[in-house]
Specification:
Shape: globular
Bound molecules: ligand MGD, iron/sulfur cluster, molybdenum atom
Radius of gyration: 24 Å
CATH class of the largest domain: Alpha Beta
Number of strands: 30
Helix content: 25-40%
Number of domains: 4
Strand order of the largest sheet: 5-4-18-17-16-6-7
């Protein structure tokens, strides 16, 4: 066998560039076909996956570094960045340079970015877009289970469940191949309950749809728990053996009687009872949450309430049952484990834990005292940029906050106030277009590295295509900068070398990868963490981590009482409508990638505002009219999409284009620092000229 054939990092069998399902695919000379061997997609792909190769050869691809918009050599670009970093540091100290990462980065990149911030820059100011994604669920399950593994079971368990309650997820559009697991569940007699203010394609599949008022899932979960206890579905043996805190939770939901919950949520009592019956009578049942329930200023408590419901029914840690957060970004899971988060070190360690600091500092060859402490969370970091006390320079890898951050108009002004903005990207995103320096990087199929999918399964992305001349990998970019900052030897650019270091850094941590190797992943189509290194028989990996005990000190799940509160900004006379936001099938995130792929822009060409026919009639809006939505933060326009599947008091806009985030409320969850993307108060009017655009 030739050297190349034996190299597990090269080959056509790889994974999709986009979401956390990380569908397996073959990439052969620009042609994509699905892999059958990866259980998450088992031969399926969505439209984004099928068309992902188009961006590899797109004319919009960046292949030359840009300095103030003009092409320059790599040396010029990197010399400039390093000199400006040194100048900012000399003037304002190390925390004046900030780093922002992304949940789409491979584990190797996320790890190296966190190390680069702490070791090369010595800054505490690093956070990433995962804060906007599943941070509330992460905070809630860390509190409850002592470990944040999005799905603590293989995705194929969903197909064997007898009931699934899914709050605020629309996988029929956000992870289409996930639907096959739900369909299999239903054809086996299982029942699906979906909680969503809209009758989405996912809700249409459901046996029961709870059309909740945006921002009231917490009350709903408390109400479901109240009914579950009242109707005798609490699993008292399980609660006694595997949990602590049930009595306090029981007391806390006693005031959430069903009629009160109906008034708050808009969900009829009979439907709540039916949902509880479906879950309570199932042998194997699951409670899942998506961003709809989580992206709120009370997201952590909302997820806690759903976790309490699952625990009361005796689900988590039982084979075939459980609670799971359906993670979103390609490496949303791994990206939150290895240190690009403000408060974290690799292996899901806490940056303020002295033992964690000592372990990681030893791997990095530095004095623990030289490791910075925790920094600002994503929105707080963006909000501080260019202010007297905030960072003056920002290095950004894998995010497009001009489009995707809450209160994006304000964030854009903060970015403008920087002395230095450096963006690594392969397209000129809206944020890259503002940068002093743009560094053209390689894309998924042109490099290798590991991704940890929504199940906690560590997968290998193989290099399946040659990068265009001129582009460099993010690891090469970080090494180039580190060399210029005098510590190049600490930043290898080879992904496997970085992974081996990550394994050591994670050893003994919650997310222990030390027993995982590229060879093993390749041979086993992925390995579930935790997977510690062993002396004898290799550790098998951990598909279902909570079967025997939870990852808390006493092994029991912690039930924490929580209470409902209204959205940070409720509707009033001036702004009488709830505005929520989310995704459509054809586009990914800020749209930086998918708005450059023709079949996708044809399928979904422009921003729209979804509203109910009754509301449309009241406001004199016809389908296809151009409408303006206003909130206390700004205004945005879109094409009216009139649709009886949405609540009459609610507007929905996708965030794949600049627009809805000019309106969103950056009120933050006190624990997770998640912004309130999913609800703010808004008003809608038809644009003056009333011009029909569709
Ligand atoms: N096509 C596509 N797929 C994607 C992505 C993408 O951008 N495009 N992104 C990936 C990423 S990073 C993520 S995080 C996932 C997200 O995946 P999902 O969580 O499925 O996606 P969203 O559309 O953000 O939100 C889901 C639903 O929440 C509903 N919702 C809004 N407000 C509320 C509320 O107050 N309560 C409840 N219960 N529901 C509410 C919306 O109507 C929407 O249908 O998708 C991943 N997959
Ligand atoms: N209103 C509203 N806003 C939201 C949400 C919502 O539901 N509603 N959802 C939030 C959620 S869940 C998320 S995850 C965020 C996502 O929003 P963003 O953080 O903006 O995510 P992307 O659009 O994926 O941005 C990734 C950028 O990095 C580039 N990129 C991709 N891969 C790499 C790589 O390997 N290296 C480098 N250097 N660049 C790369 C892409 O071209 C793109 O420009 O948006 C959040 N914003
Ligand atoms: S579901 Fe997600 S991972 Fe699968 S093909 Fe679509 S975007 Fe890619
Ligand atoms: Mo996300």
């Amino acid at each position: 066998m030739s050297q190349a054939a034996a190299d597990p990092t090269v080959g056509s069998a790889t994974h999709c560039p986009y979401c956390a399902l990380q569908c397996g695919m073959y990439v052969r000379e620009g042609e994509i076909t699905p892999r059958e061997d990866i259980p998450a997609n088992a031969g399926g792909l969505c439209q984004k996956g099928w068309t992902a190769a188009e961006l590899l050869t797109s004319p919009e691809r960046l292949t030359t570094p840009l300095l103030h918009g003009s092409p320059v050599s790599w040396d010029e670009a990197l010399d400039y960045v390093a000199a400006r970093i040194e100048a900012v540091r000399a003037g304002h100290g190390p925390d004046a340079v900030a780093v922002f990462g992304g949940g789409g980065l491979t584990n190797e990149k996320a790890y190296q970015l966190g190390k680069f911030a702490r070791v090369a820059l010595r800054t505490s100011q690093i956070d990433y877009n995962g804060r906007f994604c599943m941070s509330s669920a992460a905070a809630a399950v860390n509190r409850a289970f002592g470990m944040d593994r999005g799905l603590p079971f293989p995705i194929t368990d969903v197909a064997r469940a007898d009931a699934v309650l899914f709050a605020g997820g629309n996988v029929a559009e956000t992870m289409p191949p996930f639907v096959r697991h739900l369909t299999a569940m239903r054809s086996g007699g299982g029942r699906l309950v979906v909680v969503d203010p809209r009758l989405t394609p996912t809700a249409k599949m459901a046996d029961l749809h709870l059309q909740v008022t945006p921002g009231t899932d917490l009350a709903l979960a408390l109400g479901l728990l109240h009914i579950a206890i009242a109707d005798g579905y609490a699993d008292l043996d399980y609660l006694a053996a595997r949990t602590t805190g049930f009595e306090a939770v029981r007391t806390s939901v006693s005031a959430w009687w069903p009629e009160r919950v109906e008034r708050v949520t808009g969900v009829p009592v009979a439907r709540m009872r039916e949902a509880v019956r479906i879950l309570g009578e199932a042998e194997r049942a699951m409670v899942l949450t998506g961003r709809g329930a989580e992206q709120h200023a009370k997201g952590t408590d909302t997820v806690t309430a759903f976790v309490n419901l699952a625990l009361t029914l005796g689900l988590p840690g039982r084979a075939g049952s459980g609670y799971g957060c359906v993670t979103g970004q390609g490496n949303g899971q791994g990206g939150r484990e290895h240190g690009q988060k403000a408060d974290q070190l690799p292996g899901y360690r806490k940056i303020d834990d002295p033992a964690a600091r000592a372990h990681v500092a030893a791997v990095w060859g530095i004095d623990p005292a030289d490791l910075p402490g925790p920094g600002r969370s994503a929105y707080e970091l963006l909000d501080a940029l260019g202010t007297p006390e905030g960072p003056k320079a920002l290095l950004l890898f894998g995010s497009n906050p001009v489009v995707s951050a809450p209160r994006a108009g304000h964030v854009t002004r903060r970015l403008e106030a920087l002395d230095l903005l450096v963006v690594s990207d392969f397209v000129l995103s809206e944020t890259a277009a503002m940068a002093d320096v743009v560094l053209p990087t390689t894309q998924w199929a042109e490099e290798s590295g590991t991704m940890t999918n929504l199940e906690g399964r560590v997968l290998l992305r193989r290099q399946a295509a040659a990068p265009p001349p001129g582009a460099r990998t993010d690891l090469e970019i970080l090494r180039g900068l580190a060399e210029r900052l005098g510590c190049g030897e600490k930043f290898p650019a080879d992904p496997r070398t970085v992974f081996d270091e990550l394994r050591r850094a994670s050893a003994g941590g919650v997310a222990d990868y030390s027993g995982i190797t590229y060879e093993r992943i390749a041979a086993e189509t992925g390995v579930f963490w935790p997977c510690p290194e062993t002396r004898g028989e290799p550790h098998p990996g951990t598909p279902r981590p909570f079967l025997d005990r939870f990852a808390t000190p006493d092994g029991r799940a912690r039930m924490v009482p929580v209470d409902h509160r209204p959205p940070a900004e409720d509707v009033d006379e001036e702004f009488p409508l709830y505005l929520t936001s989310g995704r459509v099938l054809a586009h990914y995130q800020s749209g930086a990638q998918t708005r450059r792929i023709r079949p996708l822009t044809q399928a979904s060409p422009e921003v729209f505002v979804e509203l109910h026919p009754d509301l449309a009639e009241r406001l004199g809006v016809a389908p296809g009219d151009r409408v303006r939505v206003r909130s206390r933060r700004g205004a945005a326009e879109g094409v009216a999409r009139v649709n009886a599947s949405i609540r009459p008091d609610t507007l929905f806009m996708p965030f794949h284009w600049e627009g809805v985030n000019l309106l969103t409320n950056p009120a933050l969850d006190p624990t997770s620092r998640m912004p309130e993307f999913k609800v703010c108060a808004a008003a809608l009017e038809r644009c003056e000229d009333g011009e029909r655009v569709a």
